[in-house]
Write a structure and sequence with these properties.
Length: 136
């Protein structure tokens, strides 16, 4: 099953692309809720390059590495990657008159309900949009 999420970011494409792919920016927006944070991020933005973001509960009770390998990179247009568990993700960046539409489609995992996965990924994407707009 594939799940699609999207948000409109009211900023220019350069700002959106940079914030999506810069480790220091990722550490600021990559969270679904206030009780989590990203403590480390590394990005090698090229086909075959790897990325990792360390996501942890702020109380130290749980953490995990969100990581994968880029399979397609079209600057300021699209990024595709394969996560460590084999699932695939495609993200598109489309400049519009009112901002940049960011759309991500990902393979659902089997441990959690699809709606829970959609909500979590959407929360992170919404947080990304708010972060970029505040910086713009």
């Amino acid at each position: 099953m594939k799940i699609t999420i999207e948000t409109l970011v009211r900023a220019d494409l350069d700002q959106v692309w940079t914030a999506w792919n810069t480790p220091e920016d990722i550490k600021q927006w990559n969270t679904a809720s206030d009780d989590w944070h990203t403590t480390h991020s590394a990005v090698d933005l090229r086909e075959g390059g790897k990325f990792v973001s360390r996501m942890e509960a702020k109380d130290g009770s749980f953490g995990f590495d969100f990581e994968g390998v880029y399979t397609r990179v079209v600057p300021q247009q699209a990024i595709e990657y394969r996560m460590g568990d084999g699932r695939e993700v495609q993200s598109q960046f489309v400049q519009r008159a009112d901002g940049v539409l960011v759309t991500s489609t990902f393979d659902a995992e089997s441990e959690n309900p699809a709606e829970m996965q959609r909500a979590g990924w959407q929360a992170i994407l919404d947080n990304f949009g708010r972060y970029v707009e505040a910086k713009a």
